[in-house]
Amino acid sequence: MVIKIEMLKYFVAVAQSGNLSDAADKLGRTPSAVSMMLKQLEDHLGAPLFESDRKSKLTSLGTFTLDEAARGLDHFQRTSSAIENYAHAKSGFVRIAVVPSVAGTILPEVVERFLEKHPNVHIDIRDMDSAAVHRDIISEQVDLGIASDVDIESQVESKPLFSDAFGIVCSNNHPLTELDFPLDWSELHRYPFIANGLCSQISDDAFQSVFKASKLMVRSTTSLLALIKTGIGISVLPKLVVDNARGDICFLAVNDSTARRHIAILHRANTQLSPAIKNFEKTIQDVVSQAN
Length: 292
Prior knowledge:
By secondary structure, the protein is of the alpha/beta class. The chain has three domains: 5-87, Winged helix-like DNA-binding domain superfamily/Winged helix DNA-binding domain (Arc Repressor Mutant, subunit A), CATH 1.10.10.10; 92-162 and 261-291, 3-Layer(aba) Sandwich (D-Maltodextrin-Binding Protein, domain 2), CATH 3.40.190; 164-260, D-Maltodextrin-Binding Protein, domain 2 (3-Layer(aba) Sandwich), CATH 3.40.190.10. It has helices spanning 5-17, 20-27, 31-45, 60-87, 100-103, 107-117, 130-138, 205-213, 221-229, 239-243, 275-291; strands at 92-98, 121-127, 144-148, 156-171, 194-195, 216-217, 235-238, 249-252, 260-268. The strands form two sheets. Strands 1, 2, 3, 4, 7, 8 and 9 form a seven-stranded mixed beta sheet that branches. A two-stranded parallel ribbon has the order 5-6. Helix 1 crosses helix 2 (20-27), helix 1 packs across helix 4 (60-87) and helix 2 packs across helix 3. The longest helix is centred in the first third of the chain and has 28 residues, at 60-87. The model has no long low-confidence stretch (mean pLDDT 91).
């Protein structure tokens, strides 16, 4: 026979109460059931734990056992609580990589809602472009990603979240703003074009010729918008990016209904997500669903 956690629990209750009756009430058991459990423990140890049947005074073995059992039960309780908290998303860690346009619009509400229900979960947010999000998912640097779902690798699982339209982005005083909308991609040939990492998602041949002819590639959205504001060139971006920007920027609709950016929740394929991560993912989906 081995010492069971229940044996130690019953013994500590009796030792602290000083008698069987009070210990039995505390444990919600009968005095005879408690007495039987104590006997099993003493039989296993081969020596008595109490000086008499009254259970009011411990033997030297009883004193040693009480110290060790109390410490062990406390550790067991803390371990049990930690496991239960993790299982019910009351604790844990969520690492998420997000494209800037989502980080500045949808994510604040997601974090606020999540922390209301899970205040003890730690969240690590990283702001980066879609390619970097995919890399960090694959390398397991983050648990979740919110990014474009193009060119999904086999190591990444994708769940569609929303889509928004691409449009031409220019300064408020640019000549393009004086034309009738929606614009054709062919209008871009007349002006300096600044390429960015999202341009490859637009398949139109007329646009691709403009993209390939560009002499300037800017992958940072912040830097790209700054260059556009100063009139150095024009570019194309999803509408959400421009809605989130401030300053002298215009978003011009284009005559191409297929030009849309598709955003998805990403995580590494064949990976069991923790309860906290699953709850964070659900919160993202809820916020987006209610916004649409």
